Prior knowledge:
The protein has helices spanning 6-17, 24-32, 36-43, 45-57, 78-85, 95-103, 119-134, 147-159; strands at 21-23, 65-67, 89-92, 139-142. It is mainly alpha-helical. The chain has a single domain (6-159), classed as Rossmann fold (3-Layer(aba) Sandwich), CATH 3.40.50.300. It has a two-stranded parallel ribbon with strand order 1-2. Helix 1 (6-17) packs across helix 8 and helix 3 (36-43) packs across helix 4 (45-57). The longest helix is centred in the last third of the chain and has 16 residues, at 119-134.
Amino acid sequence: MPGSGKTSIGKQLAEKLQLPFFDTDEIISSLESKSIHEIFEAHGESYFRTLESDLMNHWKLHHAVVATGGGLPTHGDLMEVLNNLGTTIWLKTPMKTLEERLTNVDLGDRPLFQNTTDISKTIKTMLQARKPFYSQAKIRINADESEAIIINRILRKLYS
């Protein structure tokens, strides 16, 4: 989910595992020479989802930590693709935490929040729609602790 800590946890996990870190939104933004917001604005969500799908279906990197955009696993068969590529992790972050994080940041580059007047409702609706996909992750971590504890939980599950 947006605000769950995918990027910050992913970077720290990659460092602990001594692996490279990639963020699919950053890759797509770089390839298109536009921000995610600009891509959505110019071409719409469907185009962006096609870019995500193309990226995952042509993924060649191995032995890396990858943070995907929160919507990526929910389109087409991408959750299955992700599970086939590696070990997927769902950071199950409480609604209250997501609300706090997304209320206190600039949502300018989060296009799915651009026209919302009720962040709580948007998060709840988004989570309900995405949960069936996220729940297919190989590892599910309650992400309601400090980042250090979350990373240690992930490492324990990876090595168990």
